Automatic annotation (TrEMBL):
This is Methyltransferase domain-containing protein. Keywords: Methyltransferase, Transferase. The lineage of its organism: Bacteria, Pseudomonadati, Pseudomonadota, Betaproteobacteria, Candidatus Accumulibacter. It comes from Candidatus Accumulibacter meliphilus. The keyword Methyltransferase applies. PANTHER family: TRANS-ACONITATE 2-METHYLTRANSFERASE-RELATED. Pfam families: Methyltransf_23.
Amino acid sequence: MTQYQSFPGVNGASESLAKLKALRLPSFQGKRFLDVGCNEGFFCGYARFDGASEAIGIDKSRVAVSRAQVRFPDCRFFAQSWQQLPDGRFDVILLASALHYAEDQAALIHRLMDSLSDNGTLVLEMGIAPSGKSEWVSVKRSIDERLFPSRGKLAEILAEYAWKIVGYSVQQAGDPLSRYVVHVRRQRPFVFLLLESPGSGKTTLCRTLFAKAKVPVVSGDLTYRKLSGRQIPASEALASVICEDFSPQYDRVADKVLAQGLAGDLVEVWCRQGGGGEFALDSYVPEKYQQEVKAAFDERGYVPVVLNWEMEKSMSGPGDAAKKASRYAESLLDLTASQSTVAAFQVKRVSSPALAQFFSGWHLDQPVNGQLLTEHEGFTVSGWALPSDLNVEGVRCYVRLKGVTQVFKLEKRREDVVKLRLKDQPAVPETLAYCGFQFSGLRKDELPAGMEFGFIVNGEEMPAARVGISQCTPGKPSLSRKFLAGVGARLWRRR
Ligand SMILES: C[S@@+](CC[C@H](N)C(=O)[O-])C[C@H]1O[C@@H](n2cnc3c(N)ncnc32)[C@H](O)[C@@H]1O
């Protein structure tokens, strides 16, 4: 047998070490390797050296195989044709300088691909004929004449796989063709992962780019909603975490599910929703879980493509929004405390049996508890009152200010009140639509001691509300934080 491979002290026809460099083999750590047409086992030896769990070489030459076994006792070698391949699947398969010996080269490539693991790589080292057509070209060599594929023919054979010519290989003396290294992998569907936080434009991108490209989109929000109603299958662990206290705050749901270590279960559901082919996923995944999610897609045979883009987010996270809102509330308190020209009303309704008996309802629209009034604003009292007896007429209102009483009529039309309060009454007298009142023109500085508001029915006064006013003076803010936080009554008492 002519010496083909080169080892220290043995020069073969092939510069094996240079070829090894050109092959750009993937890392072998923990992988199964098969070398088809292994000769004296140079590459099997390398695979074990690089951490392969198993390295098997086959060659039809008994001499080559027996030499290989002596050189590399922890590899396994078989003297057999590539018509029959060893059992099992391999992570890396090498066919170097041998394809042209096969009777049916395309069939050999497909058989080798069938023996490859899902994520495996077939490494071909081969001559490619320089032709613009897709054809087999017969090439005379010093030792024989063989068929070599053109680039187009190779593309045709490899059409169903993902493949790449990674570069030139080392030339051998008398080579009529250039040699190339080609890496071939099983084509796996892409999953486009749009995992950015809410408001970053994921859904818009899906509606535009992916819709146009006819790539189906799986919506994370919709998946969570379906899972919350147990409308789609999922692991019990995932379903129960989602169903427990479900609320459609999907970023929180995502956080909760992933914090429970359920990335794999969730990815399983997404894959089913995706239908087994290529799809885009529109679902927020916090950054700390993104690697885990990517790995889970990888394990399920997908090529995960994470899409990142710079865009100002239109929405901050719920935690952020709440923090900012509280800071703003604080700043509002400071701002209001520094304003010296505003006044605040405190309205207290008086409850009396006479009022309750006479009116089915009444309301002061203005002033409102805590309402601020600027220096230039007039002070208005307005509202409505409906007597229990719908036929009663002649109800009046009054305001009493510094002992002076001003009386005014109910003469404003209030369809809204009639519609809301009297919708069930069979016959409502037309006059009752005029149940509203409005009294303007008072100045706030006329109210230092507060005002009384009430009704006059049959000449009898019925006090209905007391209205106080607290005025801020420069440098002496009287609007306390607590008041502004809603405890207006305190201010009233302080006055
Ligand atoms: C040019 S050598 C290449 C050796 C090795 N792959 C390398 O690149 O160093 C081709 C090898 O393929 C082997 N071979 C040829 N036809 C074969 C077949 N049908 N089955 C298995 N091995 C075969 C030969 O015995 C030879 O060792």
